[in-house]
Every structure is written in C-alpha cells, then in structure tokens.
Write a structure and sequence with these properties.
Elements: H1 3-15, H2 21-36, H3 57-62, E1 81-85, H4 92-101, E2 110-114, H5 115-133, H6 140-150, E3 153-157, H7 164-179, E4 183-188, H8 206-215, E5 216-220, E6 238-239, H9 246-257, E7 266-272, E8 275-283, E9 286-290, H10 291-294, H11 301-310, E10 313-319, H12 327-342, E11 346-351, H13 362-371, H14 374-377, H15 382-395, H16 413-429, H17 432-436, H18 447-463
Parallel strand pairs: 1-4, 1-5, 2-3, 3-4, 6-11, 9-10, 10-11
Antiparallel strand pairs: 7-8, 8-9
Amino acid sequence: MNTKEVSYTQSIYKTKTDEQLGIIQSLQHLHDELRSYKAPPIIHPTIKSLQPDPPSVFGRLFGQAKKEQPLQEIPANLPRGLYLYGDVGSGKTMLMDLFYETLPRSVVSKTRIHFHNFMQDVHKRLHQMKMEHGNDLDCIPFIAADIAEQGNVLCFDEFQCTDVADAMILRRLLESLMSHGVVLVTTSNRHPDDLYRNGIQRESFIPCINLLKYRLHVINLDSPTDYRKIPRPPSGVYHSPLDAHADSHAEKWFNFLGDPSQGAPRSETQQVWGREIHVPKVSGRAAMFTFDELIGRPTSAADYIELMRSYDAFVVTGVPSMTHQQRDLARRFITFIDAVYESRAKLVLTTVAPLTQLFISKEEVKESLENGKETKANGEGGEESIDDTMRHLMDDLGMNMDMLKNSSIFSGDEERFAFARALSRLSEMGSKEWVERGLGLEKDGGKKERDDWAKVRSRQMEDSM
C-alpha cells in the first residue's frame, strides 16, 4: 500500500460515522478491484463508420428514421461503479475526492470533473463534429472514445439532468464510455429514479436511469432513522454480479433484517410433512441460504410456505442464470418468489446477472428472434436488434412480452406469464416502500407502524394455513 493509500484509510476512519461504515466498505471493494483491473485498449471508430447508410428508394420518398450505430459490448470484467447520493453536507464529495486521490497505481489514467462542466464539453464537441461532418453523423461513440482515452476511471461530482438535450444523449454516452472499459464513480443529490423527474420526454430518459442502477452501486449517504438503532444498508436489496461486493452486501442486509441481540447466527431445522428443511443461518426472523441450499434441492411450494411461517426475511446468495436448460430450477425459484411476495416478507438476492437476465439470456433472445423471423420482418438484424430487445426487457423489467410472442424460449402462455409475474414482483419487492414496510423506518411511521404490519402479516399467514 502506497503512502496515499495509508493516508486515505486513516482519513476515512477519522471522519466516519457508524452509518458510513458500509459506504467505506463499498469504496474499499472498488479500490481493491481496480488494483487488478486492466482496461481494454480504446478502439476509436472512424468517421466513415459513423455515417448513415445511403437511404433506400422508399427512404428517399417517405423519409427514413435516423439509425444509431451499434455500440461495443461492455467488458465482462468491468468493475461496477458507484453512485453516491445524499443531501447537501452528507460528505459525498469528500468521500469521492478521497477515493480519487488514493486510487491504486494500476489506474493508468483518471479524470475528476463537475458533471455540469462535463456535459458542456460534450455538447461543444457534438457541435464541432456536426459542423464539420453534418447533422446525420452518429457522434456519441467517437466522443466517448476521446473521453475514455483521458481516463479509465471517471469521477463526476453532482450528477444531474435538468435539460432535455442532456436527457436525449446520456444513456448512449454512458454506455459508450462503459464499452471502452471506463469505471464511473459519481455523486448526486438524487436517487437515479428521481433524476429528470417531470422533464420533457422523460420516458426517453428511463433507459439511462436503468443503466445507472444496473451498472453502478447506488448508495444512500443520508443517515436513516431506525428505532432499533441498526443502520439500514446503503444499497438496494438486489446485487449483481457476484463480485467482491456480493458477500458483504448479503451480510449487511442479514445483520440489518436479523436480530444481533440474540447473539451469533445459528442453524435451524423446520419440519414439513415429516420431512426436514435445514436452514443454515438464522438471526431473529431472518434466514440466509445459498441458492443451491434453497432451490438446488428438490423442494415444493409447501416447503416455502412453511419457511414463510417461520421467517420474515430471506437472504439468498449466488443466484445463477437459469436458461431453458435449467427450467426446473427456474420454476422452483419462481415458486419461492411467489411465496415470499404473497407472505409480504423481505427478500435480498446476490445474482450472477441482472434480474431480467436470470431467466432468459441474450443468446436465447437471439435464437428466439431468428426462429420467429422477426429480424427479417423488421428489416433489421444482427447484434444491434438483439441489444435493443435486451434493452427493452431491462427498461420495463421484462413486462414488454409482445416482442417475444413468437418466442421458443417459453414452453407456453403459463410459463411466459410466470416469468413476467416474477420480474414484476421482484421489482416491487425491491422498492424502498416494500423493504421498509413494518420496520419502523417510514417517515411517518415508527414502532406502532411496525406492530400494525406484524398483525396484518400474521392474519395473512393464518389465511394460508
């Protein structure tokens, strides 16, 4: 560890509060990942490759929509960045600056810039390129490659979107930067879901919000009020991929949802119709399993319902992608999700891939589109149409099932419905309202609200008996 890194560690622990420990660990995890991360070489697109194809005869007659060039794939080894948000004075800029100043020597180049200044520079470059090469040139990949050459770690201060011109280009710009191996760290006053709220054509900005939530750890720096005096973990309940952050993510949530006053976690055995279910880790009314321990064994809805009677919260780690070759696993996992949802319990997951890619892979979408001949019908094909399909699935959490109506991925309408329902329920169970319901954390809640929720959940479980 160099002198700066020692100074960083000492400074961070002198300035921390108890609530910031989880945040410091997330910064340290990314710091450690960057030690061994090697960004790919920057592949600069040519001006010719970014020019539009000559219009067809019909295109000349009726007009032809401007078509964006497909982007490079985001590298599989790209470390997940950080999105630190909180009120003024919460220390987010200080933490980011300390992180920036103490980046490991393996980071060859880095850039730290205020986000407003960054976007001004981007629009200036866009204007210059369009003046020189015409308005039809797809400038974003070229500009992103230029920016990536200046730093493979890019730190933004005060990320925000208040302008429709920014909203229209941000998703493609950030995705282009990531495709060149750029790691993003940013601060903001708002959660990604609150960016550009009530803005013009906000629906066009939703893909950017989803990109931020899937590719960056979203961390809240505001100290919550919790009558149990246990700080709520700063990130969401779902974590992907299975990187260096995954284990600590699961442990933080397990400690939060469990009851440390009962001592060290223990194992328990539950009985279902004369069979035993081993629960490897229990704290209070929270249970923790690996995916193999819970779903990998032959289990049924009856097993899951019994677990719901015994526990209020579940942490499941190491969730794999389940393609058509693992349909039995997928069906059991969906049954478990339904049981958690219907019992109003809490669910924390660490997954190998984003939620929308747990039950359906990019390769399966490609095969499905080819079998349905949709690429030919649309006059499109190749990797770009596959990327667009996956992006739509991510944007609306899998509920745009029309594009897969001729798919060979699902065995029938029942399986298609179960897939869509599971993603919809996971989305709801990942919301702040769901996670904090009954914990006394709601703004106008407290212990009375927690007790009222416990009574409601007790009646629901009685109805299921």
